Amino acid sequence: MALVLCTGVKPAVMTTRRLLLERAGHQVVSVGTEKELEKACTEQSFDVAVIGHEMSVKAKPRVLVLVRKHCPAAAILELYPQYGERALADVDAWLPMPVGPQKFIDAVNSLANKRVAG
């Protein structure tokens, strides 16, 4: 279906997201550092980029700038803590976490489908 970039700070959470999305038919690349993000974006053209909810409010804007710079075609989904605030205004969609796995998959599918249709 789509090539998805997942960013985050907790390897176990990123693995779970990758497995969910792969079972839904997506190809997934997970990155944990800004350097890995830049490398992945220069090597592949992502349809969707997911910015993890446990990333600090200071780190999220830097990650957004890197994604916009190196993966300009990617739709961006910001995950944010359920009882916290969104950190990013200039993204395509937001999803409070935690949510059920299907809501996460549906959010990524929606963004991927918009990119294909757009």
Quantity of strands, as a count: 5
Which quaternary structure do these chains form? single chain
Give the biggest sheet: 5 strands, parallel
What count of domains describes the coordinates?
Answer: 1
Shape verdict: globular
**CATH fold description:** Rossmann fold
Tell me the β content: 15-25%
Overall pLDDT metric: 93
| Distance linking N and C termini | 15 Å
The spatial strand order of the largest sheet comes to 2-1-3-4-5
Any idea of the CATH class? Answer: Alpha Beta
Contiguous uncertain segments of 5+ residues: none
Written as H for each helix and E for each strand, in order along the chain, the element string is: EHEHEHEEH
Rg, alpha carbons: 13 Å
What's this model, at a glance?
By secondary structure, the protein is an alpha/beta fold. The protein has four helices and five strands.
